[in-house]
């Protein structure tokens, strides 16, 4: 911890402390999931997979980019396809390149909603971190 007359708070470097979750603020690390009533969910790992599929057009290439087996990626996609009434990811019919995988409008909506929620959560956690910094400094 730093102790000086400024408002610096302790640094929570994830590499140093090896804590799970993202550092949304200096004081707070968090992870969150969006869950439907049946228990299907998306969190940052699954969202990252959806983004990789959207970018590459391929579950296989997305899995490779994440150092994940195709089998695991396909299982995650299958699980995520249970999140809503319609699938988030579908196989595109082939053409000269043999087809691929695309996110449906529902898949793109889930990506957008998750990232927007993440932004709001980050803003909230940054505000809470400022309060913790003030409280910490008042104890010195």
Structure summary:
The chain is 49% helix and 11% strand.
Structure keywords:
140 residues, mainly alpha, two-stranded antiparallel sheet, 6 strands, disordered N terminus
- Corresponding CATH superfamily of the domain at 41-135: Winged helix-like DNA-binding domain superfamily/Winged helix DNA-binding domain
Main sheet properties: 2 strands, antiparallel
Order of helices and strands: HEEEEHHHEEH
Number of beta strands: 6
Strand content: 5-15%
Structural class determined from secondary elements: mainly alpha
Kindly provide the radius of gyration, computed on alpha-carbon positions and rounded to a whole number of angstroms.
20 Å
Q: Helical percent range? A: 40-55%
CATH topology of the domain at 41-135, which one?
Arc Repressor Mutant, subunit A
Uncertain segments = 1-14
Taken from the alpha-carbon principal axes, the silhouette is elongated
**Architecture (CATH level 2) name of the domain at 41-135:** Orthogonal Bundle
* Distance linking N and C termini: 12 Å
Arithmetic mean of pLDDT: 84
- The helix tally amounts to 5
- CATH classification, class level of the domain at 41-135: Mainly Alpha
Strand order of the largest sheet: 1-2
């Amino acid at each position: 911890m730093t102790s000086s007359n400024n408002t610096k708070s302790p640094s929570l470097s994830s590499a140093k402390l090896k804590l799970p979750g993202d550092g949304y603020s200096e004081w707070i690390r968090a992870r969150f999931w969006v869950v439907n009533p049946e228990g299907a969910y998306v969190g940052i790992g699954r969202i990252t997979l959806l983004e990789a599929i959207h970018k590459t057009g391929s579950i296989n290439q997305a899995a490779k980019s994440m150092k994940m087996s195709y089998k695991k990626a396909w299982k995650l996609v299958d699980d995520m396809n249970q999140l809503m009434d319609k699938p988030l990811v579908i196989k595109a019919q082939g053409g000269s390149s043999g087809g691929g995988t695309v996110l449906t409008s529902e898949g793109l909506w889930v990506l957008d909603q998750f990232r927007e929620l993440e932004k709001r959560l980050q803003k909230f956690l940054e505000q809470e971190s400022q309060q913790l910094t003030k409280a910490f400094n008042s104890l010195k």
